[in-house]
Task: inverse folding
């Protein structure tokens, strides 16, 4: 059972890594990104990208819920900063502090929602275990 749980966490972390690397590669193609921004607002893309990245990171960590929330937020925020700083190296891109703030906001909303959901589900599981012991 422990190996299955560990494999699940590793798959989430692998998915988070692939997702982040694909964001970096995609962002280096300025023309593709400009076309996408014409369809969607740049800030909406940043928000959802870091929301998804944070959800994957959260699923990959095996800490207590609050520690997972804090760790996920700091990792995602750090990766957002790396993403923005790497844009100095891409001629068609400009780093933006506002984009990084939106990345952080997307991460924060994801970890708060996931923390609440995990708390609700784990509380329900604990209560059902208590009720079954009373029989």
Result:
């Amino acid at each position: 059972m422990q190996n299955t749980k560990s494999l699940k966490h590793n798959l989430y972390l692998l998915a988070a890594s692939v997702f982040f690397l694909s964001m970096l590669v995609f962002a280096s193609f300025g023309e593709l990104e400009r076309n996408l921004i014409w369809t969607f607002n740049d800030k909406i893309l940043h928000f959802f990208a870091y929301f998804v990245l944070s959800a994957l990171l959260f699923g990959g960590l095996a800490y207590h819920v609050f520690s997972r929330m804090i760790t996920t937020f700091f990792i995602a925020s750090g990766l957002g900063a790396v993403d923005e700083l790497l844009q100095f190296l891409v001629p068609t891109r400009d780093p933006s502090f506002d984009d990084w703030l939106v990345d952080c906001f997307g991460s924060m909303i994801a970890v708060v929602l996931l923390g609440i959901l995990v708390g609700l589900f784990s509380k329900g599981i604990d209560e059902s275990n208590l009720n079954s012991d009373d029989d």
Q: What stands out?
A: Residues 2-130 form one domain.
